[in-house]
Amino acid sequence: MLDIQRMNPNYFHPLQPEFEMNTRYYVEQKERNRENQSTFLFYQFKMNEGFANPISVIPDGCIDILFCCDEQQPTANVCGSVLQSKSINLKAGYEYFGVRFLPKQETQNLNCPMSEMIEREVPLTDMISTGAAASEKIVNEHDFHKRIKLFKQMIGSAIFASGNSSPSIIKYSLNKIYLSKGNITINQLADETGYSTRYLRKQFEENIGISPKLFSQIVRFQYSLYMLLKDHDYSIKDIIVENGYYDQAHLINEFKKFGNLTPNTISKRMVISI
Q1: What are the tens digits of pLDDT across the range 142-151?
Q2: CA 176: distance to chain centroid?
Q3: How far apart are the first and last CA of the chain?
């Protein structure tokens, strides 16, 4: 069985495999915010010279802030989760710095709520007043750890509130979804919270942007992907059992639905890239 602490949302963050597979290098660092007990994934990668193919991003239920470190034409965008695999064009030969966070971590001072960020990409300057100055400093800095420090000083403190304003039903439901690895139904959530399924669905759509059922499916897909790519001791059968799939066909269909690839294809691509 999996170590539940290791797979707890405080220790686990959804993956974007092609950031690692199709880049010259990739580094990441997780940090815990002691004030609101949230975890951020900081990462950095560099696109290969002459790389003309788009990078695919997959559903992860998260929001990313992604900086293109082109000193002549820098960009910084707030990117919401996609609902199926989507190709994005990144500049060949350039470095990218990003921050990924889960939806339970409030962004009270952004001009756009998280529920409206699904499948959207918005310039950081449209979201916070300090966006332009912060982006310039982060792009002009070349050290990964110093970029993290700049982000926390100039952006993190401005947009991530110390408290969490999500309704208690959302906070509770998200924790249950993460701890169950997406294996919980809306009826079970309704029974545990004492609210109707209709009310629960409405709260999710208002605060997260998608239904609890779809969000749970994305979480399960991401946990399965993590086991497939990061925990090589687990077989396909283990992944099916641990993540509550009916059978191998069910697992494959969900990988195709969200990642547009089978588990076997993703695993082989990851091995080849390494």
Answers
A1: 999 999 999 9
A2: 18
A3: 27
